[in-house]
Amino acid sequence: MNTWVYIDHFNGQPAPASWEALGLAKTFGAATALVFGQNVEALAKIALEYGADSVLLADDPALAVFSPEAFTSTLAALASDSPPALILFPTTSRTRELAAMLAVDLVTGVLVDVTGLELADGRVIATRPVYEGKLLEKTTCSASPQLVTLRARAFPKPTPEAGRAGEIKKVSAQAGGAAVIEGFVAGEQGVSLTDAGVVVSAGRGVSNDPAEGFKLVAELAAVLGGAVGASRAAVDAGYIPYANQIGQTGKVVSPDLYIAAGISGAIQHMSGMRSSKLIVAINKDAEAPIFQAARYGVVGDLFTLVPALTEAFKKKLGK
Amino acid sequence: MKIVVCVKQTPDSEAKLTAQNGQPSWGDAPLVINPFDEYAVEGALQQKEAVDASVTALCIGPEAARDALKHALAMGADEAILVSDPALEELDSAGAARILAAAIQKIGDADLVFFGRQTIDNGTGLVPAQVARVLGWPLLSLVGAMTVEGAEIKVERTIEEGKQIARAKLPAVLSIMQSVGEPRYPSFMGIRKAGKATIPVWTLADLGIAAPAQAVWRAELLNPPAHDSHCEIIKADSPEAIAEALVEKILAEKVL
Fold first, then answer.
1. Shortest Cα distance from A69 to chain B (angstroms)?
2. pLDDT tens-digit profile, chain B (256 residues)
3. Is residue B160 in a domain?
4. B223 and A136 in contact by Cβ < 8 A?
């Protein structure tokens, strides 16, 4: 079977989960990558290196900035010409809109933020968290094409093969942007929270000296090549921007290692990090609920333990 | 100016959920207005104060979902409409979007349609974009701040990479982020008003459409695999010794 995989990007910077989607598609057979934008031929070549057998490239000024309407019309036109059975997307703010609108145009359904996918006779059975991750559902789409967005880091990332070749077929774009983007202010640079392999977070426990607390947390994250997260309490108190918030009203992360420092573990926070592979908690309160989710815990003061942990990792990892 | 705020009723976020015979169960926990939708109501009420708008809350659900609408009324919405029909028990997001779009057209003259970012039950976050597509109106998602300027709206959106300033012509569909501000508490007067309010119920016949075909199906609902809940507490004489022991343990897990 030939699966289509939408490669999401922002100004040519690909969302890493696009490659995870491509890797999954290859386990089902052939994969066609979809690359839309302006001056994005380089991205089409990278898609081939990550395993795409061919690329449908819509390179057009009409697609210079992501617009859900124009991108949907472009993809809908392609899918009407030669309908695939399955289109995979990495889950991002853009693809949620794109897949949503595409389902309206093609009268089909979307399985969103999927963490597991089985295939039987060309039909998918997707596993996804519901009720804030408190339950899981297995879900199917009875129309075609089946649209599925995959949660970042839920599927393995393939190893790229330098210079791998394949057909890049140019296709036409459709116009249709309904909103005008007038300005952009980049967020803090660094490792993206949802794609990070390691996340170090802090919460109310830093309240004695929030600036110092988050500096210590950032140093530990840096040694591990990770990203900095926060609980809602820390964000509400103004210690750190909303973009760093993990939980029900923030971001959902599933890193290999999640270190929670001074976070009590409210249910709203847990719903954003419970799928992490290894959870480590540091908290002064031995009764804090975070310890119930953690594999390893330390009862103590994060202001002394976090820097000690940074030094110990530096020594062990030879940094 | 007329603003329609779409809300849904969900189990409280503090509720303990379990899957029982394929159905979700939340015990005695209350059903509430979806927490994200409270931010949408708050955003609409801020606009009502800024540009003299009327706010209509709209909900698809069973008779009991009136309580979510009453919450919106108590916060300050002017009127509320419940879409309820036995044929709507199973709806996927695109189906819900088609129903909401039909109801928005029946309400008439809407300039803005507000949604919360997503619901905390199914949590697909698809419906705002799908309503925009069905209506053919611009979508401005993940909005944290907004200003109506004549026949246009200017917003600040938060995406993964940073903040965007975007503008679109009215009518438009917006999904609202929590940075719009904490939802106001219903006032005593608001609660009294909501208690007395008449909430019309619209059926599919009232909307003049058939039940939409369903494409997305739940095959199974499962409790998550039992967590290895045993937490090993690392103890030692000094922070340094604790850190060293903890690093050993973490590295031995081979997740890095």
1. 8
2. 999 999 999 999 889 999 999 999 999 999 999 999 999 999 999 999 999 899 999 999 999 999 999 999 999 999 999 999 999 988 999 999 999 999 999 999 999 999 999 999 999 999 999 999 999 999 999 999 999 999 999 999 999 889 999 999 999 999 999 889 999 999 999 999 999 999 999 999 999 999 999 999 999 999 988 766 689 999 999 999 999 999 999 999 998 8
3. yes
4. yes
User: How far does A165 lie from chain B, in Å, by closest CA?
Assistant: 31
Q: Which domain holds residue B42?
A: 2-207
- Residue B237: burial class (beta carbons within 10 Å; 0-12, 13-18, 19+): exposed
Residue B153, domain CATH: 3.40.50.620
How many domains does one find in chain B? 1
Name the residue facing B232 among A99, A194, A295 (closest C-beta). Answer: A295
**B246·A309 Cβ contact <8 A:** yes
B151 close contact with A: CB closer than 8 A: no
- For A241-258, the pLDDT digits (tens) are 888 999 977 899 999 999
Answer whether residue B255 is part of any domain: no
ipTM above 0.90, yes or no: yes
* Residue A78 burial (10 A CB sphere; 0-12, 13-18, 19+): buried
pTM for the structure as a whole: 0.94
DSSP-derived secondary structure for B156-182: EEEETTEEEEEEEESSEEEEE-GGG-P
B111 touches chain A (CB under 8 A): no
- Give the count of Cβ contacts less than 8 A between chain A and B: 255
Six token digits for residue A171: 């296709």
Smallest Cβ distance to B164: which of A103, A136, A183? A183
What are the tokens at A255?
């890193």
- CB-based contact, B142 to chain A, within 8 Å: yes
Closest CA–CA distance from residue B197 to any residue of chain A (Å): 31
Contact check, Cβ <8 Å, A139/B217:
yes
Tokens standing for residue B12: 């409280």
Beta bridge partners of A246: A251
Our CA-based measurement puts residue B207 at a distance from the nearest CA of chain A, in whole angstroms, of 19
Domains of chain A: 2-170 (3.40.50.620), 193-317 (3.40.50.1220)
Chain A, nearest residue to B213 by Cα: A107
Q: Which residues contact B221 (CB under 8 A, 6 or more apart)?
A: A130, A135, A136, A137, A138, B19, B22, B23, B24
